[in-house]
Amino acid sequence: MNSIQLGDIHLHVRQDGDPNGPPVVFANSLGTDLRLWDDVVARLPQNLRLIRYDKRGHGLSACPPAPYSMGALVRDAEQLLDALEVRDCVFVGLSIGGMIAQGLAAKRLDQIRAVVLSNTAPKIGTREMWHERIAMVESQGLSAMSDTILQRWFSPAFRESAAVLPWKRMVETTPAAGYAGCSAAIAGTDFYTTTAALRLPALVIAGSEDGSTPPDLVREMAGLIPGARYELIRGAGHLPCVEKPDIYTGHLVDFLTGLGVIEGGL
Predict the structure, then answer these.
(1) What is the crossing angle of helices 70-83 and 96-107, to 10°?
(2) Is the whole-model pTM more than 0.90?
(3) Which residue from 47, 97, 184, 201 lies 20 to 30 Å from 190 (Cα-Cα)?
(4) pLDDT value for 27
(5) What does the pLDDT look like over 78-102, one tens digit per residue?
(6) What is the rounded CA–CA span in Å between residue 152 and residue 238?
């Protein structure tokens, strides 16, 4: 385990593959930690430098008091990549991780050569919806909310299997301050103008059963970025890298191959 101090906060980071290889960075969703990407990382060529981290308030990273701003989350990622001396990475972000990717790409093109925006949007939900969710977290805790969260995350078939149990546990053990803090960041974010100004290679991924960022919302975002490639993964919800890791990794490998990051695919 590796923890990097960034000013007044420390972030938990894991690196796999070749430390001298082309960097691919992964940012996870609300209520999950870097294990979200286990099945994808295991399927990728190990000559890549594969970097994962827990955003503030999640996993083994520091959990400052809520609320957080999206600017702080983007700055965390920016400072982390600077500390790791990462340039020209492909940044893969899912849900709030995809919002971080949009903000970072607009701010630091020296760090980002391409983005994968998965199950995300420039704006997710309404400010009122997120404030209601924050109030529920603070009054009832995440254990009372986990079943509803999992309904948005996963297809019915996955929810009915034993495979859902670790994810239920992951949600319920997320610090309440971290969940509420990141919810506040989402509530205050509207990146429509910012994302429409992006001019870099982009792969946009949606899940047909996604109850958090429905496919039409994700497709709309893809339309904002000239030349963006849109892929719909059928039978998967908000976390297709968990439900359909072979298909998800296949799209990622095709994208990386087209960029010249991987030679000849898998």
Answers:
(1) 70
(2) yes
(3) 201
(4) 98
(5) 999 999 999 999 999 999 999 999 9
(6) 7
Flag residues of the chain having pLDDT under 70: 1, 264-266
Amino acid, res. 159: R
Give me the DSSP letters along 6-53: ETTEEEEEEEEE-TTSPEEEEE--TT--GGGGHHHHTTS-TTSEEEEE
147/19 Cα distance (integer angstroms):
39
Cα dist. 45→42, 195, 203, 253, 254 in Å? Answer: 8, 30, 19, 9, 12
C-alpha span between 42 and 60 (Å, rounded): 21
CB 219 within 8 A of CB 102: no
Please, are residues 180 and 67 in contact by the beta-carbon 8 Å criterion?
yes
Residue 23 contacts residue 86 (beta carbons within 8 Å): yes
The predicted pLDDT at position 240 comes to 98
- For residue 22, give the amino acid letter: P
Q: Is the dihedral of CA 175, 176, 179, 185 positive or negative?
A: negative
